[in-house]
Amino acid sequence: MPLIPNKNLKTYFSIGEVAKMFDVSESLLRFWEKEFPTIQPRKSGRNIRQYTAEDIDEINIVYNLVKVRGMKISAARETVAKNHDKEVGTSELLDRLLDIRKQLLNIKKELKSIV
After folding, report:
1. What is the CATH number of the domain that holds 78?
2. 37-85 pLDDT, tens per residue?
3. 82-107, pLDDT tens digit by residue?
4. Is residue 1 a part of any domain in this protein?
5. How many domains does the chain have?
6. Which residues, 6+ apart, have CB-to-CB distance to 3 below 8 Å?
7. Is 70 exposed, middle or buried (0-12, 13-18, 19+ CB in 10 A)?
8. What is the rounded distance in angstroms from the CA atom of residue 93 to the CA atom of residue 101?
């Protein structure tokens, strides 16, 4: 699961920062841009990609479909095209559940250290 810092603290993120958030390569992000029209980072004068929080949300949807659920690119593209709003909700829910799991594991670790 990607480690996404509070996206609201920054306006734009570099491709390197986004790749690190999702633990994927920069070339994979560029490939996803071509395959998924919902991912449209702003490009500066020197063609440097600048990702917004909304772009990161779209990448998270694709990440969850392709990397977490194991969908092929064509199936993920079709899913995003047909059910974008549903996938946004599913992606957010999955993120929350994974965060809760992480918190529970930390509680478990603390309880073991007490006993």
Report:
1. 1.10.1660.10
2. 889 999 888 888 999 988 998 999 899 889 988 999 999 988 888 876 6
3. 876 666 677 677 778 878 888 999 99
4. no
5. 1
6. 21, 23
7. exposed
8. 12
